[in-house]
Design goal:
The protein is α/β, with parallel strands linked by helices. Helix content is about 35%, strand content about 15%. The chain binds zinc ion.
Length: about 250
Amino acid sequence: MSDEQIDVLAIAAHPDDVELCAGGTICSLTASGKSVAIVDLTRGEMGTRGTVAIREREAQRAAEIMAVRHRVNLGIPDGDIQNTKANQLLLIEAIRRFRPHIALISSPTCRHPDHADASALSISSFFYSGLEKIETTRGGMRQRPWRPAHVLHYMQSVPFIPTLVVDVSHVWEQRMQALLAYESQFHSTAYKEKAEESETYISNPDFLAWVEARARTYGYPTGARFGEPFLYHNGPIGTADLSDMLKTSRQFR
Ligand SMILES: [Zn+2]
């Protein structure tokens, strides 16, 4: 048993993707004592605003707010996330290091090509991570194969019909604090932008209102004030005990 084993691993193309799309879910998990790690594939160096150093500081601050146990960056080039054997091996090493039960990954389709590319790389890496004959080492020791039991895509800019919505109402303020730790990326009066930095899709103040509106949109039908939607990869979900559903008090809508 690895002493770095965690319950949930979130993988993202860029620092801030996880906070934007699954931040409430992560805050909810850590609040209930579950362990979470984040793997950012790139440093976001192609971003219009901020710098690699600023984004790294922001990412660490956000991880602290969400009480994430580990956050690592694989340093794959931003804007060029290819599903190559070299990139798979980088990610497989992280998967085998953290040995998660559940993985949260990018959306299969998005306006930003890196997000779909990150999804494809993640899916391939999970599969190959389970093959014994693919060798990886950490600290000079050969790693054992591992696949997560459940893989969920978080929703990015292109909506899908979710198979799961996580109620994040009780951690909403915390999840917004984690998002706003990225002062260079989202609207913030604290950030002094450089003259040459343009407004982006996500730095417009209306974007934060849209984040809240989307959480309300997906939360409300499930009885939650705020919800985060997910797409279960390669369903269906099995259960040995249907009475688990009786633990929720919500009425059919
Ligand atoms: Zn992104």
